[in-house]
Amino acid sequence: MKNFFKFLFIVLFTAGVSALTTVLVLRHVEPQVLIGQSTIEGDSTSLPLAYARFSQLPEAGETDFTQAAELSVNAVVHVKTTYKMQMSRYQTDPFLEFFFGRPQQQQPQTQQASGSGVIITQDGYIVTNNHVIDKADKILVVLNDKREFEATLVGTDPNTDIALLKIDAENLPIIAIGNSDDLRVGEWVLAVGNPFNLTSTVTAGIVSAKARNINIISSDMSIESFIQTDAAVNPGNSGGALVNTRGELVGINTAIASQTGSYSGYSFAVPSSIMTKVVSDIKQYGVVQRAVLGVQIQEITDQLQKEKKLPTLQGAYIAKVVQGSAAEQAGMREGDVVTHINDQRIKSGSELQEHIGRCRPGDKVELTIIRDGKNLTLTAELRNKNGNTSIVEKGKSLSAALGAELEVISAAEIRQLGIRNGVKVTSLSKGALADASIKQGYIIVKANGERISSVEQLQDIVNDALAADEDEHVLFLSGIYPNGRVAHYAVALK
Q1: Residues 209-223: what's their mean pLDDT?
Q2: Per-residue pLDDT for 356 more than 50?
């Protein structure tokens, strides 16, 4: 019995010490967990940053998202789109068409879809995702107070999945735009949007990661440096607001990681730093002024570090330098590792893309690189996709009309395929060619029966087709793939 009481005393003593230790640890750890959501006010800004934040911490359980929700919910709109979906597609042979006429199509059916948008100016400019309004014939915007407006599409940027709309209204509620660079992993954020047509929905989560590249934008000039969060986002949230606890817009919700099509734990948003630049360009120039460094980037893995004997796992590895590019003119070489741009540390290739994506042609950037174990500083003057620093003019470009980038085929391809002329599809995004099931690498030899020997010539034919007084604008293409397969397509134009 004596031994039993002795054992019981030890157990109770141990439990008491454990409980006391738990209380002490919780009292010590809890303020550190909340540091990321505190604000610095008044004279406390003169204190060291960590101490100033520590001194302003709320008490346990005081976390409150109501103010941020109230500041943002009225500026997030419901975007409803209407578009025509073709019930069946056809491919034609110009030879058969000559004898038997153009084959008939079934009448298109009207389809509807919806997403979200964010009011950024009181006079009615609204930012959303490009994929929300892509191919839409009509765009309707419904405000949180239930007013409805038909929206005009100002411009789009498929490379960042951003689009700008305009409605005819005044004194609209707006969201203050914050600095996404200031976001910290672990910081609380809210996602505001219209999932499953449930208007004005607010969910909360934390920033799970930054500068995330998930390879969802199919473009050679895509910029993916997403903010990853675990705030619940579902279909319909696309184009909605990601806001911090101060109610500032820090991102545009764009995608979810899902095997089912519904939320599975992670969502992704375009940072406000990229969105602001894209929207500014669209408003000022009508088209995004894309700056190009002229390199191919490869992420540094443990295997690559060992193979190339790199001194670090951080930074962006330069796998190729394009001839005649800004990078080549600055003196960059294959094998360089970019560690800083304009004194900002670069941890990955997507971070380098993000910083370049904020620039315009003609901007100069200072790059810190590691080469042969030594740090070097280079200055590059960025260029546009045409290789110069000129402003790209707004217009119904061929790439916008077809959803593709094209170039004249080389002499080697002419000899190899036994053809006399043609322009090749070098990249595809969402658009007319992709809708017609045309694949990258397709060489257009004829368009509407006319031999094509330049991109400008194809541009004129597309413009004529769009200007034709017909119910449906169709472009008939004949061409060949690099493997020798001949293919004919009927491409529906908008």
Answers
A1: 79
A2: yes
Q: Catalytic: 258?
A: no
Question: How many CB atoms sit inside 10 A of residue 301's CB?
Answer: 11
Query: Quick check: 485 pLDDT over 70?
Result: yes
Pairing state of beta strands 162-166 and 125-129?
A: antiparallel
User: Half-sphere exposure of 205 toward its Cβ, with a 13 Å CA cutoff?
Assistant: 22
Question: Could you tell me if residue 236 is left (phi over 0), alpha (psi between -120 and 50 degrees) or otherwise beta?
Answer: left
Length reported for the chain: 494
Mean pLDDT (the chain) is 81
Contact 170, 124 (CB under 8 A): yes
Reduce the DSSP state of residue 427 to 3 states and report it: strand
Q: Are the C-beta atoms of 158 and 217 separated by less than 8 Å?
A: yes
Give the confidence band of 464 by pLDDT, cuts at 50, 70, 90: confident
Q: Is 131 a catalytic residue?
A: yes
Q: Determine which one of 238, 272, 350, 399 is catalytic.
A: 238
Q: Which of 161, 225, 267, 325 is catalytic?
A: 161
Distance CA 298, CA 453 (A): 35
As a whole-number percent, the residues of the chain with pLDDT over 90 amount to 54
78 is catalytic: no
- Spatial distance between the Cα atoms of 79 and 116, rounded to a whole number of angstroms: 5
Angle among Cα 341, 346, 347 to the nearest 5 degrees reads 170
Handedness of CA 181, 184, 187, 190 (dihedral sign): positive
Q: Are 265 and 230 in contact (CB under 8 A)?
A: yes
Q: Would you say residue 48 has pLDDT above 60?
A: no
Kindly provide the b/e burial profile for residues 15-26, where b requires at least 16 CB atoms within 10 angstroms of the residue's own CB. eeeeeeeeeeee
Least confident residue range of 180-194, 247-261, 365-379: 247-261
Query: Distance between CA 175 and CA 119 in Å, rounded?
Result: 7
Phi, psi of 451 (to 5 degrees): -65, 135
Closest of 193, 72, 173 to residue 123, by C-alpha: 173
From the candidates 78, 114, 131, 281, give the one annotated as an active-site residue: 131
Determine the Cα–Cα distance for residues 42 and 262; give it in Å rounded to an integer: 44
Q: Which of 357, 294, 359, 347 is nearest to 316 (CA)?
A: 347
Q: Which of 396, 390, 344, 395 has the alpha carbon at shortest distance from 367? A: 344
Both structure tokens of 30? 């809890």
What does DSSP assign to residue 410?
P
How many secondary structure helices (H) and strands (E) does the chain include? 13, 25
